[in-house]
Design brief:
Structural class: alpha+beta
Strand order of the largest sheet: 1-2-3-5-4
Order of helices and strands: HHHHHHHHHHHEEEEHEHEEHEEH
Number of helices: 15
Enzyme class: transferase
Subcellular location: Cytoplasm; Endoplasmic reticulum membrane; Nucleus, Nucleolus
Largest sheet: 5 strands, mixed
InterPro entries: ExoRNase_PH_dom1, ExoRNase_PH_dom2, ExoRNase_PH_dom2_sf, PIG-M, PNPase/RNase_PH_dom_sf, Ribosomal_Su5_D2-typ_SF, RNase_PH
Number of strands: 9
Helix content: 40-55%
Strand content: 5-15%
Shape: elongated
Main location: cytoplasm
Family: Belongs to the RNase PH family.
């Protein structure tokens, strides 16, 4: 608004404010063509199209671009490539399927569930119709007729064709609505129609958001179904493989537990790097846990020394120090590297299961499988194998069970749980862990039979 305020008499100041606005919100860049077209002066070159260029709008363009480039350069010096990635590049590949007002919502929703890499990347081309209409066609047609009305329609089109849209985005074009209505018959001779349109607009939003909430956020439907269609005691889709990196490690595994995806590699038993790490009585277990920047919708660079990661790493090291027959491998180190590729709930349980498989693949002796699962309590109803949304909305715990017994190798409470329901929740979690154990055992036997057949 400051850019528009200073446009008539102080175009350089106006250009500065527009460059600053683009730095903070990107989308005001669509206003630049309209503003340049409204700045009239003697053309530099009297030829079609080129005659639109004059000294005043050329100066305006230079100041705007220089302001934007200068501020971006300062931010780049401060934050490096991470600034460019989060501010600009991320928007080219962002796949947010929870913005249900977007006309691309269903396409992005189904795309997010695909696991194949050979899919059409719709998120990379949705900018074409959006920018063609809002930044080129509308300015050429309307900018010189009525600048504010042109900006209103540009913003309306930009928001309508944006792949990310919620109610807050409507503010972008609503700031221009008073000017548009001042010249519209909806506020003079057609007031009833205007009121009807307002009621329909608010009513349609309310109706749409109500059902969107039921689909996306209501954790447990009256029919007894969870948000992803499972019953309370059903596991997510569970896929596992071992020996995925035979040339890079002694043992390896890959697990998909729902949309949570884990890679694990094991090196050892081997000589410790330094003698101070050597234990004459047993092997030393070292676990390195890495969560990739793209593992969640929140693109965050995580340091391996974060408190949460350190806590999980220590818990896992204690768990497997007791589960592995470390006394058989004195004066050695067993290094376990875990990478979280995608985190959609149950991360600790998926990591535990991946480590178990990788250790078995490495031929390291264990007392038994350690199979883990997460479970929670929603309105006093136990829920098994939680996804990320469920974990954020209810008290939950993660437990790891030794083999087919009821002995716990791991137990982590994420929140406070009523004692009256704890025993029931633990029994459900133990039963779920036994099912996970059967699935892992099936993969181990399948791989073992395959190796045995090659020896014949």
């Amino acid at each position: 608004m400051l850019a528009l305020y200073y446009l008539k008499n102080h175009s350089v100041i106006s250009a500065f404010w527009l460059g600053l606005a683009i730095h903070f919100k990107i989308y005001p860049i669509i206003y630049l063509p309209s503003i340049l077209l409204t700045i009239r002066d003697r053309p530099l070159i009297n030829l079609p199209v080129l005659k639109l260029v004059n000294l005043r709008n050329l100066l305006y363009l230079i100041v705007t671009v220089s302001t934007l480039a200068g501020i971006n350069y300062i931010m780049y010096l401060q934050y490096g490539f991470e600034f460019l990635d989060h501010s600009y590049l991320y928007h080219l590949v962002r796949l947010d399927h929870r913005h249900n007002f977007s006309i691309y919502n269903m396409a992005l929703y189904y795309k997010s569930a695909l696991t194949s890499i050979d899919t059409f990347d719709i998120e990379k081309i949705v900018f074409i119709p959006q920018l063609a209409l809002s930044a080129i066609i509308v300015p050429l047609v309307l900018a010189r007729v009525d600048l504010l009305s042109s900006l209103f329609i540009q913003t309306f089109i930009f928001v309508t064709f944006n792949k990310v849209m919620t109610s807050q985005y409507f503010i972008w074009f609503l700031i221009f609505l008073p000017h548009y209505l001042s010249k519209s018959r909806l506020t003079t001779t057609n007031k009833r129609i205007g009121i009807l349109l307002l009621v329909l607009w608010i009513g349609s939003q309310s109706s749409w958001l109500y059902f969107a909430y039921q689909i996306e956020l209501e954790l447990y439907s009256p029919e007894g179904l969870r948000i992803d269609g499972r019953r309370w005691n059903e596991l997510r889709n569970f896929n596992c493989k071992i020996n995925t990196h035979p040339n890079l490690s002694d043992g390896s595994s890959y697990i998909e537990q729902g949309n949570t995806k884990i890679i694990c590699t094991v090196q050892g038993p081997m000589e410790p790097i330094s003698k101070s790490q050597s234990n004459p009585e047993k092997a030393r277990i070292e676990i390195n846990l890495t969560i990739t920047n793209f593992a969640t919708f929140e693109r965050k660079k995580r340091n391996k020394n974060e408190k949460r990661i350190i806590e999980l790493r220590n818990l896992l090291e204690k768990t497997f120090d007791q589960s592995i027959m470390t006394h058989l491998y004195p004066k050695t180190s067993i290094i376990i590297n875990v990478q979280v590729l995608s985190q959609d709930g149950g991360m600790l349980s998926a990591v535990t299961n991946a480590i178990t498989l990788a250790i078995i693949d490495a031929g390291i002796s264990m007392y038994d499988y350690v199979s883990a699962i997460s479970c929670g309590l929603y309105d006093n109803t136990p829920i098994l194998d939680l996804n990320n949304l469920e974990e954020n909305e209810m008290p939950c715990l993660t437990l790891g069970v030794i083999g087919k017994s009821e002995k716990l190798a791991l137990l982590l409470f994420e929140d406070k749980l009523p004692l009256d329901y704890l025993e029931n929740l633990l029994s459900i979690g133990i039963a779920g862990s036994h099912r996970i154990k059967d699935l892992m055992d099936s993969e181990i036997r399948k791989h073992g039979n395959l190796r045995a057949s090659k020896l014949k």
